[in-house]
Write a structure and sequence with these properties.
By secondary structure, the chain is an alpha+beta fold. About 20% of the residues lie in helices and about 40% in strands. Strand 16 and strand 17 form a beta hairpin. The chain folds into 2 domains: about 140 residues, Roll (Diaminopimelate Epimerase, Chain A, domain 1), CATH 3.10.310.10; about 160 residues, Diaminopimelate Epimerase, Chain A, domain 1. The mean pLDDT is about 95. The longest helix has 13 residues.
Length: about 300
């Protein structure tokens, strides 16, 4: 019998019971993948992470990420939350006199750099870099897209494309006309699976430029029934591609670095705020970063 320490943290929020909950196991050494998967299913959170020694000499730690259904090559809130926990537990620390640190995680997509900022010696913000965006196929049948979300065709904004974008993990981005449509969206797994047969991801990210909270840029929701996640309260891996989509289609002011705030999870009662920074040189996107605050919730043990 092995006693495994874990930490619980809410990611992309500055208060308890907001953001996206995460469990971090800071010592995953010796655990087989099937045990990690079983633990993730036991917690039934969007994701659970396990920290391991790196296999890549260019990285500081290896992080494996599991949903209740499968392992992910990369994910946003688990990366940000794991960095926050390791900083809080002094596994990683800034150099003396510095108010930030940089750490590189080995994930399924390769090295993932993370920056952690500190105030009075305590971590307050973490931001990950993501791979540059890849824009995939578009869906032209808006009626079929709307049906996947239990919406009418007129709920989908026909001024913008329904498009696949990936910064390591692909999502299908569906622009909606307003908050009312976003609130009414309900995924239909069978129709999503049919669309996936044509090369479309099972993960649907819907957004509207009408927002609830002052300071937000877009109001977002993410549905991933194929990963065992009916709805995700905050999706870092989808936020980098979202910012890239908004920049590419001219929906944010044209700047060398565009900053976007995505509000997510409000329909779930877990308000989350994801800060997205997109660098560009002319028309070319040259950098993608996703970050936010975290709130520590506690620790515990599993006996396995």
């Amino acid at each position: 019998m092995r006693r495994l320490l874990y930490h619980r943290v809410d990611v992309f929020t500055d208060r308890a019971f907001g953001g996206n909950p995460l469990a971090v196991f800071p010592n995953g050494r010796g655990l087989p993948a099937e045990t990690m998967q079983a633990i993730a299913k036991e917690f039934n959170l969007s994701e659970v992470t396990f920290v391991l020694p790196p296999e890549d000499a260019a990285c500081d730690h290896r992080v494996r990420i599991f949903t209740p259904g499968n392992e992910l090559p990369m994910a946003g809130h688990p990366t940000v939350g794991t960095a926050f926990v390791l900083a809080r537990e002094h596994v990683i620390e800034p150099d003396e006199g510095r108010d930030h640190l940089r750490v590189t995680f080995q994930e399924g997509v390769g090295p993932v750099p993370v920056r952690v900022e500190f105030t009075d010696g305590r971590p307050v913000y973490a931001e990950m870099s993501q791979p540059l965006p890849r824009f995939g196929p578009r869906l032209e049948d808006r009626r079929a897209v709307a049906a996947m979300l239990s919406l009418a065709a007129e709920d989908v904004d026909d001024a913008l494309p329904v498009e696949v974008v990936s910064c390591g993990v692909p999502f299908l981005y569906v622009p909606l006309r307003g908050l009312d449509a976003a609130r009414r969206a309900r995924p239909r797994a069978e129709l999503i699976e049919q669309a996936a047969g044509g090369g479309v991801p099972l993960e649907l990210f819907v957004f509207t430029r009408e927002v609830e909270q002052e300071g937000s840029t877009v109001h977002s929701r993410m549905f991933a029934p194929g990963l065992g996640i009916t709805e995700d309260p905050a999706t870092g891996a989808a936020s980098g591609p979202l910012g890239s989509y908004l920049v590419r289609h001219g929906l944010v002011p044209r700047q060398a670095t565009a900053v976007v705030v995505s509000e997510q999870g409000l329909e779930m009662g877990r308000p989350s705020f994801v800060r997205i920074s997109i660098d560009r040189d002319g028309e070319e996107i040259t950098g993608v970063r996703v970050g936010g605050r975290c709130h520590y919730m506690g620790e515990g043990f599993l006996e396995v």
